[in-house]
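Example with several molecule types.
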Amino acid sequence: MIGVGKAKQYANVLDKPLSRGRQEVSLSAFAFLFSELVQYNQTQVDNIAELERRLEDAGYAVGARVLELLCHREKGNRRETRLLGILSFIHSTVWKVLFGKVVYLITFCIWKDNLYQKRYVADSLEKGTEHEDEYMISEKELLVNHMGAFNCGAFVAGIVRGVLDSAGFPAVVTAHFVPIEGQQRPRTTILIKFAEEVLRREARLG
Amino acid sequence: MTLSRLLRCAGVSTAIHRFYPVSVGNQQFVFWIMASTACFVIVSRNDIPIYEAEVGSVLKKEEAAHLHQFILHAALDIVQDLAWTTSAMFLKSVDRFNDLVVSVYVTAGHTRLMLLHDSRNEDGIKSFFQDVHELYLKILLNPLYLPGSRITSSHFDTKVRALARKYL
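Resulting structure tokens for the full complex:
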């Protein structure tokens, strides 16, 4: 009676119900996949800028899907129509679902099955003071930056750009290292610069 | 009292019915089929239709199909303005043409599910949209599917038509 307790097998993926999404993936599995992604792209390009652009495009595809899925799952089918609304959606919901549990000490956790976990939300959402259309998400320990020597924050910038673009807020999103005195690791900042039409529409909607 | 007058009193539109009289012994029965027109289109964020289906129970006529597409495309402008005024996904009926009504459901990624129909069954239409939205999410989650490209899965087509028969 081996197959008695088996979960129901569906013939086609469209028949399977959408999962409720409390699943977590081990950091080692994600680290492996992400490092393979970076190494594959490294073989295809000649310079860092091109590599970052490719990582951003990979993140864009993720962002487009994450937006639709999370609005359906977490927000009970309410869309975001205002700028601050979509930014707080990214800052809280998206970050919590994608990076909600982070590995505290990554160096020796990769070889362990039990991961040390620390819960956090992205540190702060700030408005850039120079321009009206710039916003920054500032992150102390960006997950993907534990992996490599250079800035893999481009992947996360791509995710954010994918979410914003799909929701109808076209923006240029970049990731920057910001050195802070008193800490050896620089903070990673994701800079979001919105397009003209977004600001015009926001002004029109009042 | 004729049958059509009886149906009109009951509030059922008679213009689109066909009557089939059948006599069994001494009794005479009349069967009538309620035919409904419905055209369903999924339009991506870039205003490109990625899926179309005639889901009504009326036999499809060529001229009618072109007219349906035309009406749905004309309604896109109205949908665009309306989508930014509310955060709900189901916008009820946004446009009318003769006795046909256009109802729209906008997803988070601004993909519009548009239905051209002549019925007044709002709850059924809302449930239909919600189920198709879930199907669309499953298609979108496929990493090999390019968002904004045509949906070619025949299984998706079968399921949408089954949902239309169930709710519309």
